């Protein structure tokens, strides 16, 4: 048994040593691994030469259309109300001068005619005295007496020619009666309400047949031929707008109207943290509606010696990259105006190569190269020098 164990152990050692020697021989026959040279990565960036010019600015804002004039129809007299020339209904349109409603004026009209009759009697009583004492003015008073129509407004009194004639007329209560009648005529006109402008009835509180008292709100009118747009403008843009500036008003459907800035608010809206700007709109062939949401484009002040770049090229508030001899340098700029996607600036030397795209992991004094054309770069191949070309 001992001899057999020794033989087995010897054979195992022989096989182990043999396999070790064989692997060493075979390993020595392989080619040594190649050592690759590190690939140089060239970073290409998009640049534009700095060139200044006069730039016209624009401010875009959004808001809702509203009528420039609205009017509450308040009753000034009492009586039974009836309809006018158009139905007193919400949404009803009308023209200027249209009778919208009337209030029963029978009693008031009869009282007025009674006053005119009394006035005629007083005039008839003084005509003989005028013919004798003021004969040079008698024909004027006679013609005035004949021109009076009880169903029409009382005409203006003839001019007196002397203080004596004036005193005579005053003692006969001619002036007092005349102005009492004119006051009654003015009161009678309050029984009929005529439209003061072209518009639409927006609210109706009382219907035809209702009894109204002075102070009752019958309804509300909106002027349709005089509209304005109220927009919210950021406080940073408000200094670029001037009263009287023209404006374009545009709808989502592409309809366009002309307008003009008429008013600029003097305080900040607490809800929007912006300032209200009001634009009067010139009516065009396309109709717009009260409450419609529209966009306006207002030309702003001109920036002299400025340049436009994407906002994304600016970092840290007012810093950009400039490419000098294939080296990125951080420069500060003077920003005149920020737009939604662009910025207007100055402060760099003209003809400098300004980087006009955002850079990732870039830093001051970093090596980079100007991107002349997209075709100059092959992102998957290497150039003849073994350098890899990478676009930012």
From TrEMBL:
GO terms for cellular component: efflux pump complex. SUPFAM superfamilies: HlyD-like secretion proteins. Keywords: Membrane, Transmembrane, Transmembrane helix. GO terms for molecular function: efflux transmembrane transporter activity; oxidoreductase activity; zinc ion binding. InterPro entries: ADH_Zn_CS. It comes from the Bacteria. This is Efflux RND transporter periplasmic adaptor subunit. The chain crosses the membrane at residues 7-29. It comes from Fulvivirga marina.
């Amino acid at each position: 048994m001992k001899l057999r164990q020794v033989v087995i152990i010897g054979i195992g050692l022989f096989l182990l040593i043999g396999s070790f020697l064989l692997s060493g021989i075979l390993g020595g026959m392989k080619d040594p691994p190649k050592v690759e040279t590190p690939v140089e990565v060239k970073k290409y960036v998009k640049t534009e030469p700095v060139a200044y010019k006069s730039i016209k600015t624009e401010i875009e804002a959004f808001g809702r259309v509203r009528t420039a004039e609205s009017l509450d129809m308040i009753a000034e007299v009492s009586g039974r109300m009836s309809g006018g020339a158009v139905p007193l209904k919400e949404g009803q349109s009308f023209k200027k001068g249209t009778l919208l409603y009337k209030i029963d004026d029978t009693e008031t009209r009869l009282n007025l005619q009674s006053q005119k009759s009394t006035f005629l009697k007083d005039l008839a009583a003084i005509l003989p005295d005028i013919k004798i004492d003021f004969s040079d003015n008698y024909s004027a008073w006679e013609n005035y007496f004949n021109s009076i129509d009880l169903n029409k407004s009382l005409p203006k009194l003839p001019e007196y020619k002397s203080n004596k004639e004036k005193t005579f007329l005053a003692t006969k209560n001619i002036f007092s009666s005349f102005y009492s009648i004119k006051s009654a005529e003015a009161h009678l006109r309050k029984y009929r309400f005529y439209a003061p402008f072209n518009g639409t009835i927006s609210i109706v509180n009382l219907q035809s047949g209702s009894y109204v008292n002075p102070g009752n709100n019958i309804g509300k009118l909106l002027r349709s031929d005089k509209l304005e747009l109220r927009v919210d403008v950021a406080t940073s843009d408000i200094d670029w707008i001037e009263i009287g500036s023209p404006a374009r008003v545009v709808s989502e459907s592409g309809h366009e109207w002309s307008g003009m800035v008429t008013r600029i608010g003097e305080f900040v809206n607490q809800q929007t943290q912006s300032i209200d700007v009001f634009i009067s709109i010139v009516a065009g062939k396309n109709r717009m509606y009260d409450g419609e949401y529209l966009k306006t484009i207002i030309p702003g002040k001109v920036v002299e010696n400025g340049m436009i770049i994407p906002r994304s090229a600016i970092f840290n508030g007012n810093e950009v990259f400039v490419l000098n001899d294939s080296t990125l340098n951080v420069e500060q700029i003077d920003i005149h105006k920020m737009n939604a996607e662009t910025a207007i600036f100055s402060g760099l030397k003209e003809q400098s190569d300004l980087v006009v795209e955002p850079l990732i992991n870039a830093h001051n004094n970093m090596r980079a190269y100007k991107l002349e054309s997209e075709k100059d770069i092959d992102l998957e191949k290497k150039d003849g020098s073994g350098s890899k070309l990478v676009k930012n």
